[in-house]
Structures are given as structure tokens and as C-alpha cells.
Amino acid sequence: MLAMNPDFLLNLPPRIITHSYTRRDTMLYALGVGAGRDTTGEDDLPFVFENGLRALPTMAAVLAYPGFWQMEPRYEIDWRRVLHAEQSCEFHAPLPVEGTVRGELSIDAIVDKGAEKGALLRARRLIYNEADQRLLATVRQISFLRGDGGKGGGGEALVPLPPVPDRTPDTKIIYAVRPEQALVYRLSGDYNPLHASPAAAHDAGFARPLLHGLCTYGFAGRAILAAACGNDPARLKVLEGRFTAPVHPGENIEVRLWQESPQDIAFQVIVPEREKIAIDNGRARVALGEQTAGSTARLCS
Length: 301
Hints:
By secondary structure, the protein is an alpha+beta fold. The protein folds into two domains: 1-159, Hotdog Thioesterase (Thiol Ester Dehydrase, Chain A); 160-301, Hotdog Thioesterase (Thiol Ester Dehydrase, Chain A, Roll). Helix content is 15%, strand content 32%. The chain has helices at residues 6-10, 23-32, 45-48, 181-185, 198-203, 213-228; strands spanning 15-21, 82-91, 99-112, 119-129, 134-145, 154-155, 171-176, 236-243, 252-259, 264-271, 276-286. Strands 1, 2, 3, 4, 5, 6, 7, 8, 9, 10 and 11 form an eleven-stranded antiparallel beta sheet that branches. A hairpin with a 4-residue loop joins β9 (252-259) and β10. The longest helix has 16 residues, at 213-228. GO terms for molecular function: (3S)-3-hydroxyacyl-CoA dehydrogenase (NAD+) activity; 17-beta-hydroxysteroid dehydrogenase (NAD+) activity; enoyl-CoA hydratase activity.
């Protein structure tokens, strides 16, 4: 029987992951989160075309990615009952379009909800550019360990994400998710068969393969870049949200945005066909452009 030890997990030294990637990988990630679908426009072109190439900020989620580390025996986590609960990225500098990065993974919080209610675990990954040792991003992921409650906790406190405003969104952006979207996205490093194999999805209790939660997160990042940042990756500073329902490849998603302050945006991701909220309690922080410095940056659709 597994016996997760919170003290052991919280006191582990950082796990170091070195990751080299190319411009092709940068373009493949952008295609994986839906960029380039509209071939008549040029808004997405800088993310999928080598001339003037830019990296989407949310690519930080797949850089120096440690894989599904919770299933490794030494952690003694009931990995079959792990769910991805929340994701947060803080972007300190624009990502290089190619190069080598170093990730330093540590566990900084475990919240015990009780023997029958599971536990929350937050892992933090610091991503550095190996060329100049600059910190590029801080990536935090909260996992819901449904089978590991009642074993204690510790570390930093977890602050709940606030709800989105109770009013009509200021902007809505609708994206069509291609039927093969998960098959493209998984080429950026997440090879969980749940997102490709009908048999694996059925064994997990789903009728068909699901879109990766981090792929949906990438769609949300693109919406905020387009609506609030003029598609300038340097202006997106924070993106965080709570996963509440899966998206199926081939569905439409609607990103709802609320302007809360000159630099703060709340968001939800909705699956209109099923009236499901895929990402809730979303929060983004952006830097103002020169044309909007000192005033509220208006969202545009």
C-alpha cells in the first residue's frame, strides 16, 4: 500500500531538468495550441513562421517538463487518482525562440484535506536560460491527489483564486479546436495516452480522448495576447486558472474576458456546446503598451 510522506516530498532537493529546443519546436507548440488556423490573417504568423519568429509565453509550461513524475515509485503517490487542478505561470522575460533552458522542480506546498477528501500538492518549476542564467518563468502546478488524504501536509499556504466577476464579459473570443488538436499538442512533450488512444480514454472513464488541460490553457493565453497585449509576448506577465472540466478535440471553446484594472484581466474558458466551464477563476496580468501607459488598456475582440 502506498504511503505518501509529505515531509519527504517537501524536503527533496530541486530536481534539475535541462532541455534544448529549436525554432521548429517553438512553431510546433504554437500549432499545438491552435495558432495559424486562420491562414488569411497575420496575427498568428509571428508564432508559426520562421521569419520574425516569436515564442508564445505559455510555451513555458512545456519547457524543462519533467513528465508525469508523480507516478515514479519513490514518491509513493497514488498516481492513478491524480488530477491537474490549477496552473499558474509568471513570465519574467520573453522566451527565446531556441536554445537550452534549465528547470528546477521542487514541491513547496501540500494541503491535507482529510483521509476521504485527498490532498493538494503544488510543484514549482523555475526555468532559467542556460546562455545567461536569466530567470525566464516560474511555473506552478497544483495537483489534486485524490488517494493521498489523511497523511499530513506542510509548506507554503495556498491562496484560492478569486471568482470571475458576476457580470457580462467585456470580450468573448471563440476558437474552433481541431479534431487532431491533441495529437499535435502532445508532440510538445505530453505523451499521456489519455489524449490519443480511445482505449486509454475508455479505461480512465471517458468516452473518447480529451484535450490536454495545458492545451486549453495555451488557447486562453493566445486570447489574452490578442485582446490585451497586441500579440506582444513581452506584455503577458501572469496567467493562472483552475481546471474544472475537459475539452474534447473538435469542439469550440469560448474565452470570456473581464477587464478588472488597467493591468488585470479575469477570464473563463467555456465549452458552449455542453455549457461546461473548462477553466474557471482565471487571472491574467499584463503590462501596458506605450499607447495605453497611464490609462486602462481596453480589451478588443
